[in-house]
Design goal:
By secondary structure, the protein is an alpha+beta fold. The protein has 17 helices and six strands. Helix 1 runs antiparallel to helix 3, helix 4 crosses helix 6 and helix 15 crosses helix 16.
């Protein structure tokens, strides 16, 4: 079978310029309507396509292992994308179209090379299998290279972290040390990667300040001379949920040096709650009460015990009841939604809610807000025990 694949590869290489041109045209047709990219980028894209095509064909011929680093011509595309703040995800459709054109053309040449349709099909299938790992590996290397270039271009380094730390400590910092105006209206974020912060900056058309966090992840601020409205911030958070790439925690909009620091502290608290609850995107305003109670461990435990009573006992039965009660409160006290989420019938949900009420010694509706906060705190406390 490898001989048939090699025969097709030989014919593809004989028609290399035509083959590559079709892929280039398909990619450019996908990205030009939105991008208006420079001639430099277009030329680099064409060189990168040809480099990837040659490399892929060589691996079909030799069945070599996936690459460990990107070819130089593809690295140039990475550099240009990063300098233009273009997220690789914005090219996902073009990437898929390019692959389809490749395999469509490859299958056509296989038909011209191998007279037997069965051999043709097997050769195409074998080639797809051989290059499946290659494509995935190339995508990972591209994404990693882009994040490294963005971090480098943004000055994510110890010097900028030191400057940010001085601001957070209430000390004076010269404007050039940050390359960011502290008089802005800020949205502070804590994220897993620089890419997430820069994507948010593009979405809001705000300036981004990004530094590597002392532990892991990054600290970021999105700045503008005008304040973002609450509705626009909610829309941004919903956008992030739809494009979630790692965990992102948001502080509340704030202005000036004091707002720079306060928003960052809120983002840190929201990030801690995200880590404890397994949420991917958290806004501080949505967990404000939770964060306030958790600042005092003893207060948090007392609050949980007072609100949940015997429902807080650590056994399988109470854990089941707490999970059902929390789902019920988080979904507008809907029996139907809770039953669907918990995969129980409605009678079981009603029975569990009545059992929970007997343990807390009042109806759920009497203190629904406090109960939901207590259930969330209980989950965090149990997770850190």
């Amino acid at each position: 079978m490898s001989g048939n694949v090699v025969a097709v590869v030989n014919r593809v290489e004989a028609q290399f310029d035509v083959f590559a041109a079709e892929i280039e045209e398909s990619l450019l047709a996908q990205i030009r309507p939105d991008g208006g990219f420079s001639e430099e980028f277009t030329e680099a894209l064409c060189r990168g396509v040809r480099a990837a095509l040659r490399d892929g064909l060589a691996r079909l011929r030799t069945q070599a292992e996936p690459p460990r680093e990107l070819p130089p011509d593809i690295l140039e595309i990475v550099r240009l994308q990063a300098s233009a703040r273009c997220d690789p995800r914005d090219f996902a459709d073009a990437w898929l179209v390019g692959q389809e054109v490749f395999w469509s053309r490859f299958a056509l040449i296989a038909e011209q090379t191998l007279e037997d349709p069965a051999l043709c099909w097997e050769a195409v299938k074998a080639a797809r299998l051989q290059l499946s790992g290659y494509v995935a590996c190339l995508s990972r290397l591209f994404r990693r290279g882009w994040e490294e270039e963005v971090a480098r271009a943004s000055g994510v380094n110890d010097t900028r972290l030191e400057a940010v730390s001085r601001v957070l400590d209430g000390r004076w910092v010269e404007a050039p040390d940050l390359d960011y105006d502290l008089a802005y209206h800020h949205i502070a974020v804590v994220a897993d990667s620089p890419a997430a912060v820069h994507a948010l900056a593009r979405q809001t058309e705000r300036q981004a300040l990004v530094v590597t966090a002392p532990g892991d992840g990054v600290w970021g601020w999105l700045g503008e001379s005008s304040q973002i409205s609450d509705d626009d911030l909610d829309a941004l958070i919903e956008w992030q949920r739809a494009h979630a790439d790692g965990v992102v925690a948001f502080g509340e909009p704030a202005v000036g040096v004091a707002g720079f620091t306060a928003g960052h502290q809120e983002a840190l608290e929201a990030r801690a709650i995200a880590a404890a609850t397994g949420q991917r995107v958290v806004r501080f305003a949505d967990v404000r009460l939770l964060a306030a109670v958790l600042r005092d461990g003893a207060l948090a435990k007392d609050f949980v015990q007072r609100e949940l009573g015997d429902l807080e006992r650590p056994n399988d039965h109470t854990r089941e009841l707490r999970a059902t009660l929390r789902a019920y409160l988080e979904h507008s006290q809907s029996i139907a939604a809770t039953a669907a989420l918990r995969r129980r019938d409605r009678k079981t949900i009603v029975r569990q809610l009545r059992a929970a009420e007997s343990l807390i010694e009042h109806t759920v509706s009497d203190r629904s807000d406090e109960l939901l906060v207590a259930l969330r705190i209980a989950e965090i406390l149990h997770g850190s025990a």
